[in-house]
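Progress note, project year one: complex with FE2/S2 (inorganic) cluster.
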Amino acid sequence: MDNTKTDLTGSPSNSDFNSKEKGPKIHNWVDFEKGSVDRKIFSDENIYQTELKKIFARGWNFMCHESQIVEPGSYFTNYIGEDHVIVVRDKNLQVQVLINSCPHRGNTVCRAEQGQTRSFFCSYHGWNFSLDGKLIGLPGQDEFYRGGLDKEKWGLSKAPHVDIYKGFVFASLDPDAISLEDFLGWVGRLGLDQVAEQGDIEVVDGIQKNVIQCNWKLAVDNLFDWYHGNVSHGSAMKLGLLTEEFVAPMSQMVILGEYGHAIGGPGISQKEQQRLIEKYQHVDTASNRKKPKNANSWRGEKSAKDALGPVGIRCKGHPNIFPNLWVSTGGTQLCLRLPKGPTTTELWWFTFVEKSMAPEVKKKVIQGAIHFFGPSGMLEQDDGENWSHSTNATKGFASSRRPLNFKMGLGLDEIVVDDSGQSSIETVVNEHAQRWTYKSWQEWMKAESWSELIKNHSSEPKGKI
Ligand code: FES
Ligand SMILES: [Fe+2]
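Model obtained:
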């Protein structure tokens, strides 16, 4: 790194993002028109390093929910790419995102995953930092530094952009980043609304975490995948734990948004919507599974429709907030697919409940969350093994020469724009959302700056796709 271009006193500077000095030659790894993806992108170290800069550091990353950091001094630690960060409510109730690395020798200044503190004290030599990252004390300022250390210059680095959408805290390390609202667009917002609009929600204490030996993009790819259920989860189906209607519904809906956001999965056709309204007087858009009484139920069809729009209310698929935040079906969980090297991904599951739920109802929601996902859940035990094998087969001499096949539904569907302006594809099982995610990923990787990305990214597609 060229230190003359780097602001050593704080957050990353514009020159960190706009330099063209490093990174792999950007090839057309993704062929959107043909539906093929080069396997190299799932294990190449140089490509991975470029992702950390151009996708994770540049983009908006989900940090936590406001309910996790209510009081001054309450904090939650997370990652932006591989940068460990502390998300903390400061004394003025502002949310700060601090890089968890002491400017002295780089030690972490916070080892806990979450908690409450008055300051961040480095366990190596004792530098002490305020909740907004300022260096407020250190041993030997007079005796050893002899007054020569300018404390103003040696605070913790910070994310230059922190913003909150309906309680969800996001941060970007790029000073040139567009606003969170613009980044999310209507598709990203719709995905988060599926959780946020269900009531006065909070995160259940304790984030479920597990590591899978796979590339993070294969874990993202799978959340749109309604092709694998019957096969990958076949053993759970044989035991009667899952039904075909649940893992592989025929009626599918896809919504594609700017900057790589997408929603893919089951959808309710207008005809089916009418039937549900006649039968139940409402459409439970979030899930057609039976839920515990009062569990995160929509407060009536009117409020759901107001919040999600006429197309959004019929969409029951999985949103992915680009690059790696999955809103799981039913809107009770969010999952981050955190990169830990080109062939390792850590999954973090956040479970939400309504604050007013009875304790026994909360317990049922939590039991359901544990049952399906996380280290003890039945779904990703099956999925994770497949992703690991897929990742391994991107490294071999012969296997890596063969691009992966993303041709399902290619050129066979139509994007229809509703009177409200919301657009969607209504079809059968398909790979539109995956293709869109990889296409967008390539646009992020090719752009050398936010201004280039703004200029060159694909706008929302229309017509035949
Ligand atoms: S590494 Fe933090 S005080 Fe030395
Ligand atoms: Fe699965």
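Confidence is low (pLDDT under 50) at residues 1-8, 285-296.
The domain at 62-164 is CATH 2.102.10.10 (Rieske Iron-sulfur Protein).
No further modelling is planned for this target in the current period.
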